[in-house]
Amino acid sequence: MVENRPWVTFFSHAILIVGIVVVAFPLYVTFVASTLTLEQILSVPMPLMPGSHFWDNYGQVLTAGSTRGAAAPVGRMMFNSLVMALVIAFGKIAISIIASFAIVYFRFPLRRTFFWMIFVTLMLPVEVRIIPTYKVVSDLGMLNTYVGLTLPLIASATATFLFRQFFLTVPDELAEAARMDGAGPMRFFFDVLLPLSATSIAALFVIQFIYGWNQYLWPLLITSEESMYTAVIGIKRMIVGGDAATEWHLVMATAMLAMIPPALVVVLMQKWFVKGLVDTEK
Amino acid sequence: MEKRAVFRSRWLPYALVAPQIVVTLVFFFLPAAQAIWYSFLVQDAFGNDTQFVWFENFKTLLHDDAYLNSFQVTAVFSLCVAVLGLAVSLLLATMADRVVRGSGPYRTLLIWPYAVAPAVAGVLWAFMFAPSIGIVSFVLRKIGIDWNWVLRGDQAMLLVVMAATWKQVSYNFLFFLAGLQSIPRSLIEAAAIDGAGPFRRFWTIVFPLLSPTTFFLLVINIVYAFFDTFGVIDATTYGGPAQATNILVYKVYFDGVKSADLGGSSAQSVILMLIVITLTVLQFRFVEKKVQY
Q1: In terms of domains, do B17 and B70 share one?
Q2: Model confidence, pTM
Q3: Does residue B291 register a pLDDT over 50?
Q4: Is A207's Cβ below 8 Å from some Cβ in B?
Q5: How sure is the predictor about B293, in pLDDT bands with cuts at 50, 70 and 90?
Q6: Which helix (H) or strand (E) holds A79?
Q7: Which of B98, B249, B277 sits opposite A9 (nearest CB)?
Q8: Same domain, B185 and B66
Q9: Is B213 inside a domain boundary?
Q10: B142 and B280, same domain (yes or no)
Q11: What is the share, in percent, of chain B residues with pLDDT greater than 90?
Q12: Is the ipTM of this complex over 0.85?
């Protein structure tokens, strides 16, 4: 604070509060709608105070799902989303950390080629190679499987860069000392490098968990069985078209359920989330 | 920068990069190469006869009004998302930077939309603005605005821009706040002593010093609007009404998956690849500058 101007300070707080209210309003409407009956939502305008059907609606979507459109229980979809988010997050971290370890700590033919191959993947998001990727996965018989959901998204240039940058800042003396003490490369990796990387791993985990949980286009393409839907796909499939035909109270309950896990990860792991965002963009 | 201390092994480094390289080859390079190959082919309606046609697909595309329209829609959409998103988050970040007490809770309350999937963001906004049952549509009708994005293209565009921006504000906010907090206080104090008010200080000192962050976020937001907003479109307008929100990524998906036009969709993929490459190069050239700064 440079000077004391009570009015400007008041104004700042006011704008921030308005901003928070506007940002939170969609969430509030969603929550309210998820506690009402369909009739209450369809009677325009819908009430803006929470109703009494919280347990009914959430219980129904978790165990049975909606009765129109996708009819799979959302509990199952949440499980699929969780598997997808965890496998993608840990898979990305695992394969990129060993790849950057090799690229930083070894000299071998094709090292640069491999590095550039990983770099180029930045320029090939799923969106630009939809159909051929779908074909590859379908030829490998991986449609409607967890492997098909996760494996194609597991290669990540950003994670590899992040670990490479970090390894380059680790003092050379550590590796020399380890070598002198007779530790092999893997011993050095597990006993020295991995513990040192803990904060980078945590930061990356938050970002990749959200990335995995929120995937949309890819699961939309390769899951046709309801038992393999993720929560985000489930919401989309419950909307059957037409404002009155959709069971909005159930859709909104599912939307709440689909938002809670990643939002909790962001809010509870805020420190690592911010670090992860800043690091992955370097 | 290279390491002095290295390990020696004939096979270990290959084993360590193998998983990453195999996944990259099978799911990135092979499909990308196929997309390029398909873009030179024309397939008949039953998929059993293909013909090599060189750049015919590209020629058709560049003479296709729907495709050119999609380019225009994407440009408008991504510019609106980037400009609106940056403006709102810069305002909020500047305010949060001023506030000494409580900036922690404010930050927590503003960053959570980052965790919302674009498709879910689309559903939330489509519900609030649903023509017949939406709570906001009800208010708009009360004040005399004829709101129906299902029929009106400009309103549909407005809706997807709002939904896409809402999700991205938290991201911009964090970067702007970090940028603001790294501006030396002494500069601002010196200006204050010279008699510059808060508004003047912002435009003559803070905003110019923030320009690297702003440019970086501009590129990131355009990339976001180009590619990550597929879910927003697919959960709200399906590119309609009358193609008014049919952004390039959605058109690739629609032509390739729903209309099964292999050659045309692949040619679009190749054009998109060129766009990503341009944006990535832009981003990286900028990062080098940022290090200098």
Answers
A1: no
A2: 0.87
A3: no
A4: no
A5: very low
A6: helix A74-105
A7: B98
A8: yes
A9: yes
A10: yes
A11: 10
A12: yes
